[in-house]
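Please go through this chain and its backbone structure tokens and walk me through the local backbone shapes. Keep your notes short.
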Amino acid sequence: MMIVAPVVHAKPTTKARLTVFMFSCSTQNMDKKSAAAPEIWVCAHCLAPEGQHGITLKACTRCKAALYCGRACQTAHWRAGHKKICVTPEE
């Protein structure tokens, strides 16, 4: 049995990304595997993955850290608190 647990990473200095971790519940194969978890870039507001349904993510023009699928998500995320942590890379 395989369990898939999505984890969203979002830091002010890095782009938001979705990392999918797969855990095996079988007791037969409990050794650690060195396979890297796939990283999928997602919208910072609605978590829509890049590439799905032709979505191209665009970075925040100020901090370049947050990615958005469209203007509506960018505005909603800004009002939800992104403006408090958004700084230019030079700051």
Q: What stands out?
A: Strands lie at 2-9, 17-24, 39-41, 58-59, 67-68. Helices lie at 71-85.
